[in-house]
Structure formats: structure tokens, C-alpha cells
């Protein structure tokens, strides 16, 4: 079996309201990862700005951009100059009144390898994403790049085993989750731990069930609520990479920025799937009810 390894750069950043500064620092961090040998660099969800979904404001639609557009030109140049594959997360303006939460992947020559529009859209206190984002219509389709096939999903998608499975069934080499998740100020320390543990366990479970590595990149730091109705969100960081048996390969701190490069051995996926042939033993003849909302 031919050995295949990929080095992945993880950038966990604390953002401010200064978009130009956020992008400048992201560029510096991407360059640091590339200097350490990263072939693939993954950014957090909606990385250009603050997480604007804490409130419902039509003014926030001014943050949206066309794809291709200014941000894709900016990140395309970086990917091409550094000869890396780059996973970005942008607020897409598809048309007036039609917006998506969209991951754009650039190949090593700076070209757009593909994009994925977030399919599962949450609507919770301080996470009012249904106000802003139309559910994706590109399906759960992996993106082929010069270094491998990437199963890119976004944040709330990470709770759904169906999304991970569909990416795996289409030959994704790994699952990637740009993320923005954190604690609300009234959560007790015990509740905070339960939430974070559930987030980690769910994604490690996707790795195990599909025999694939997982890369989860979260934002970090406190972001205030512009309305003043809550005390804002403390994004919990803890970006991590795990292997195809859910083994943790690297994990970021909860409370500070992190820029690291992690080596992923894709050969392990082949071996793990030989040991644990879950795809072989699936009872595809008996799963029709999964298409129902609920079984009464």
C-alpha cells in the first residue's frame, strides 16, 4: 500500500470588528502554516468578521459578498502564491435577498476547486442564522483538489451523521468543519463542559463511523452582543484533528489563538476500514425510513 500523508494547517483566531485587520492576521497565520510545511490550511467559520448572527439586523447583509468577488480574489492570491489548498468560509450574496453561508476551497494554483453551501441552518438564541442564510442547494458533495478529495461541511452540519456519511460514500479523504460555536454567559461550568464534550464526541464519532480523519476549526474569544440583550458569546476554541478511529492528533486551547500544522496519515483510513468494514455491512435495503421526518 502506497503511503499518503497530508500536512494540515489549523488557524484558530479571535476576531474584532475590523475586517481588514482580521484578514491581514489571517494572511499572516496562513503564511506561518505554509512555512511549517502545510499543504492544506483550514480557516474557521465566517472568518472575515465578527459573528454577526447574534442579532437579526438587515444592515448585516452589507457584509455579504458575491462569489467570485473581493474575498475570493484575496484568498486565491494567497493560495496560489503559497501553493497550498485553502478552505475558507464566506458570507455569500447570491442575489438581493438570497444569501448563503458558503465554504470556498482554493487549489494550489489559486483556482476555485469548489464550494459548499451550509445545508443545516440553526436558529437558537444568539445564533439567528435562519434570518441570514438560505439552506444550501449544492448537496453533500466532496470537493476534489490536487492533494485529495475534501468533505467540507460547516458548523451545524457537524451534528448530523447523515452529512458525514454522504461525504464518505462519495470518496472524501477527510471531513472538514469550519465552525463558530461557544458558550452563552449564563451556562454553568458543568453545562459548558457537557456541551463541549458533546461537540467533540459527535465529530470523533463521525471519524469512527466512516473511517476518516476529521478536521474541526473553531473561532475563539469573547464577542459582545450588539443588542446588549445578552452578555455575548465566549467562543470555546478547542479546534482539533482526529484520525479515523477518533484518536486525537492535535487540539487547540479553549481560550487563545492557535496556529499549528498537523500531519494526517491517510493510509490509516484504508487500514481502519479493512479492520472495521462498516461500509460493507451497512443494510442499505433497510434504511428507507431514514427519509421520514419522524416515525410515529
UniProtKB/TrEMBL annotation:
<dbReference type="InterPro" id="IPR036526">
    <property type="entry name" value="C-N_Hydrolase_sf"/>
</dbReference>
<keyword id="KW-0378">Hydrolase</keyword>
<dbReference type="GO" id="GO:0050126">
    <property type="term" value="F:N-carbamoylputrescine amidase activity"/>
</dbReference>
<dbReference type="InterPro" id="IPR050345">
    <property type="entry name" value="Aliph_Amidase/BUP"/>
</dbReference>
<dbReference type="InterPro" id="IPR003010">
    <property type="entry name" value="C-N_Hydrolase"/>
</dbReference>
<dbReference type="GO" id="GO:0033388">
    <property type="term" value="P:putrescine biosynthetic process from arginine"/>
</dbReference>
<feature type="domain" description="CN hydrolase">
    <location>
        <begin position="6"/>
        <end position="268"/>
    </location>
</feature>
<protein>
    <recommendedName>
        <fullName>CN hydrolase domain-containing protein</fullName>
    </recommendedName>
</protein>
<dbReference type="Pfam" id="PF00795">
    <property type="entry name" value="CN_hydrolase"/>
</dbReference>
